[in-house]
Structure formats: C-alpha cells, structure tokens
Amino acid sequence: MSGSKTALIPIDPPADTLRYQSLLPEELIRCLYIARLWEVKKLQEVVVKAIMLKSYELKQLDRKVETNEEV
Predict the structure, then answer these.
(1) Residue 59: enclosing H or E segment and its boundaries?
(2) What domain of life does the UniProt record list for this protein's source (predicted)?
(3) From CA 71, how far away is CA 65, in angstroms rounded?
(4) How many structural domains does the chain have?
(5) Domain for residue 2, yes or no?
(6) In the predicted model, what is the mean pLDDT of residues 3-9?
(7) Residue 24, helix vs strand vs coil
(8) Helix, strand or coil for residue 2?
(9) What is the pTM of this model?
(10) What is the pLDDT of residues 13-26, one digit of tens each?
C-alpha cells in the first residue's frame, strides 16, 4: 500500500439503513454527498433509503402532534 489510508467498508443494506436512519437530516445529506463524491453506489442507496424512512418518521410525528395523539 503506497501511503493510502483508504479502507474498504463492507455495506450491509438492512443494518446500515437502520444505522444511518438514526442520524440527523444534515448528517444524512453529508453522507449522501460523500457517497456520491466517492461513487459508492451501494452506500448511496442505503443513505437515500434512510433519508426516505427518516422523512416518513418525521411526517408521522408531525401528524401525531397535529391530532394531539400521544407521541
């Protein structure tokens, strides 16, 4: 290895989606930017899915607040 510190990170879509879903929206956007910059297709897919799930969670929470349901 010629001084490079690049490491290959195995991507497990189901587990990684859950892990990424716990990040803040700004962090998810940063991860997606990096995945696209590095052209890591699988990571892009995982992060996009996590963003969609996070968005769904926030909509559900917003709906509960609007209808005064227990959060």
Answers:
(1) helix 41-66
(2) Eukaryota
(3) 7
(4) 1
(5) no
(6) 47
(7) coil
(8) coil
(9) 0.64
(10) 777 777 888 888 88
